[in-house]
């Protein structure tokens, strides 16, 4: 099959970036969390760009907390 090479590359991309509906897991989510927050604050549609991370944040309270913390940091100093 001449398609096997393209197929392999597609599988690799899915492995690296996740596909819609997949959950990146804590390690995968944490690796790109800073970029995820940065892109989101720039107005990018991060749920399309990094769907596996978006899925994981919905599923994992611990990573969701990390995400909230990064958003707060990125938005500027906390005002008491
Ligand atoms: Zn997690």
Structural summary, described in words:
Helix content is 74%, strand content 0%. The longest helix has 17 residues, at 25-41. The mean pLDDT is 82. The protein has one domain (3-75). By secondary structure, the protein is mainly alpha-helical. The N and C termini lie far apart (63 Å). Residues 26, 29, 56, 60, 62-63 line the site of zinc ion (ZN).
Radius of gyration: 15 Å
Counting DSSP E segments of at least 2 residues, the number of strands comes to 0
Q: How many domains, in number, for the residues? A: 1
Head-to-tail CA distance between termini: 63 Å
Average residue-wise pLDDT: 82
Structural class: mainly alpha
Task: Spell the H/E element sequence.
Answer: HHHHH
> What does the largest sheet look like?
none
The distinct ligands, each listed once, are: zinc ion
Residues in helix, %: over 70%
**Overall 3D form:** elongated
Strand content: under 5%
**Helical element count?**
5
Low-confidence stretches at least 5 residues in length (pLDDT < 50)?
none
Please outline the helices and strands.
Elements: H1 4-17, H2 25-41, H3 46-49, H4 51-59, H5 61-75
Helix pairs in contact: 2-4, 2-5, 4-5
Bound molecules: zinc ion.
Keywords:
mainly alpha, 74% helix, binds zinc ion
Task: Quickly describe the structure.
The chain is mainly α and 80 residues long. 74% of the residues lie in helices and 0% in strands. The chain has one domain (3-75).
